[in-house]
Amino acid sequence: MNFAIIYNVRFWKLEKTEKELIKDLTTIKAEDIKSLSMLRDCHSLSADIVAEVLKKGIENGGSVKGNKRGVVPLLGYFIHHEAHHRGNILLTLKLCGFKLNDELKYGIWEWNKI
Predict the structure, then answer these.
(1) pTM for the whole thing?
(2) What is the DSSP code string of 48-105?
(3) Distance in angstroms (rounded) separating the CA atoms of residues 100 and 72
(4) Region of poorest pLDDT, from 31-35, 51-55, 89-93, 110-114
């Protein structure tokens, strides 16, 4: 469910900034059947759109339609929200007995590998 929430929040934020870019997308509802490929596709599509909105914001002097504080706080919001859910996902896996390897636990901090 955390992956669906991450996508839905992206969708709702994008709906306020660039509604035209998400016209073919919809939110994921609780009753929807979810699969890894569906979630992967949703995240890939929305990540590309978020990147486009951020790029436009930078090119527009930091201004983002529908977000009065601009591009930096919008990016910060996305990072904060997704980091929160990443933590929830890792905790859930750990509590369910899933063995977390070092890449899962610490890979996010391997900035030199990006």
Answers:
(1) 0.84
(2) HHHHHHHHHHHHTTT-BTTBTT-HHHHHHHHHHHHHHHHHHHHHHHHHTT----HHHH
(3) 32
(4) 110-114
